[in-house]
Amino acid sequence: MEKLFRLNSAIGFNSAIGFHPDGSSTDRCEIAIKSTWFVYANRLKLSDKATEVKKFYEADGRSNNSGVFILGTDTEVGKTHQACLLARALEAEGCRVGVYKPVASGCAAGDDCDAMRLQAAAKASVALDRICPQTFIAPLAAPVAARLENRTVDERLLLAGASWWEAHCDFLIVEGAGGVLSPVSDNLTVVDLAVSLRLPCILVAANRLGVVNQVLLCLEAIAARGLSLVGVVLNRLPSPISAAEDLVQSTNSELLRRFVEVPVPIVDSIDQLLAALSDFRLLDRPL
């Protein structure tokens, strides 16, 4: 593990923000796209489908300085809650915030869905389908839920929906569905979208027993794709906790820091990362 994270620090996270250990600059977006294409080329054995995925990655031209992608270690870990906190904090500072969830399942008619919460937090005067253009009823992985409705996830729309926001916001918050490697279509996972959108990431995890393992695994997946990481949020879930669970929550952060050798902020609320967003030059002015 120690060697792995030193390696990531040398060629993954440092290259993700544009620098090599020898001081030379590099193109983070090119590294991210090439590394993810390598993964898919091997997974799909250079099939025609793999070629289509490669084209998918190269199709979008978003910059990497206009927003952030909120990843989760799993479903129901507090991604929407933390995304809303960030949206409210930025909106209060006069930032025109965009909010986007590429796909969502478990969305029955009339439910208080994630898109509605994001819309309210950002005070976004747009239709809900601009915030989440693809929704499915069954609480299953998106491609499975889609098949139950005789539909498929539109992979092009996953990106096109984000591109619409370029002219309609100053800062875009993208929230993934499920965990880092959860499928969002027949070919793509959540982290694949982060690569294609070329956005730095914030990883949200539920602060409970087992979170250290989950976060470390997710950090490996993020680093392997050359993505930059703003920070990790250990979200405290609202359910009542025992004395033992309270002890776990109070020690997870310290324990996690022992195994992550790159300088990544580990916080319990996303608004504590506003300074880090400024350091990444993702905001027009320091907050």
Observed structural traits:
287 residues; alpha/beta; six-stranded parallel beta sheet; two-stranded parallel sheet; disordered N terminus
Helices, strands, pairings?
Layout: H1 2-16, H2 28-43, H3 48-58, E1 67-72, H4 79-92, E2 97-100, E3 104-105, H5 114-122, H6 128-131, E4 135-136, H7 142-148, H8 155-163, E5 171-175, H9 190-197, E6 201-206, H10 211-224, E7 229-235, H11 243-259, E8 266-267, H12 274-279
Helix pairs in contact: 2-3, 4-5, 10-11
Describe the structure.
It is a single chain. Helix 2 (28-43) runs antiparallel to helix 3 (48-58), helix 4 runs parallel beside helix 5 and helix 10 (211-224) packs parallel to helix 11. The chain has 12 helices and 8 strands. It is an alpha/beta fold and 287 residues long. The strands form 2 sheets. Strands 2-5-1-6-7-8 form a 6-stranded parallel β-sheet, with helices on both faces. Strands 3-4 form a two-stranded parallel sheet.
**Widest sheet, order of strands:** 2-5-1-6-7-8
- Uncertain runs with pLDDT below 50, 5 residues or more? 1-65
Q: Major sheet, described briefly?
A: 6 strands, parallel
Helix/strand/pairing category: alpha/beta
Radius of gyration, Cα only, in angstroms? Answer: 18 Å
Question: Could you give the distance between the termini?
Answer: 35 Å
Total strands: the figure is: 8
| Sequence of secondary-structure elements | HHHEHEEHHEHHEHEHEHEH
